[in-house]
Specification:
Elements lengths: L3 E2 L4 H16 L9 H49 L14 H20 L6 E2 L2 E2 L3 H20 L2
Antiparallel strand pairs: 1-2, 2-3
Helix pairs in contact: 1-2, 2-3, 2-4
């Protein structure tokens, strides 16, 4: 069973470090009543770190690579069409005119771009993209605060 893919494990690492710092280490500094609030702050910080790391790894960096590749591939296809060297490969119909070659190159380029978009969100844990674990940590922080408030009066 695959638990994480790519750097998806960072979601767990961020939360674990936050719990060690704001739950374990802070238990020596803050009172027992304030400990749930300290843990909630740690989880919120873990959520923020998880969100920005996930967006950078799953959206920003892949999109930048796709954009660079697209520019290069578009130039390559344009040159092949202009020189008459465009072909879809052996066993495929050959273009009979430059307009037909342009149309085939455009269709090929669109298909390749769609395949490249599938490379996004490759960093995940339990099939959930890394950045969406931020919502899990935020919900957990809210639950810890609610639990802290309900036990405060005891």
């Amino acid at each position: 069973m695959i638990i994480w893919r790519g750097w998806g494990v960072l979601a767990f690492v961020y939360a674990a470090v936050a719990m060690m710092l704001f739950g374990g280490l802070m238990s020596t500094v803050v009172s027992k009543q304030a400990l749930p609030f300290s843990m909630a702050i740690g989880l919120i910080l873990a959520a923020v770190a998880t969100w920005f790391t996930g967006v950078a790894l799953n959206r920003t960096a892949p999109q930048r690579k796709i954009d660079t590749w697209s520019e290069q591939r578009r130039a390559q296809l344009d040159e092949l069409v202009a020189t008459g060297g465009f072909s879809l490969g052996p066993g495929q119909p050959q273009p009979r005119s430059e307009a037909e070659a342009r149309q085939m190159a455009d269709a090929l380029f669109q298909h390749e771009q769609e395949q490249a978009k599938g490379l996004m969100n490759r960093h995940s844990m339990f099939w959930l993209p890394l950045q969406y674990w931020a919502f899990v940590w935020a919900a957990l922080a809210l639950a810890v605060v609610v639990l802290g408030i309900t036990t405060l009066g005891r």
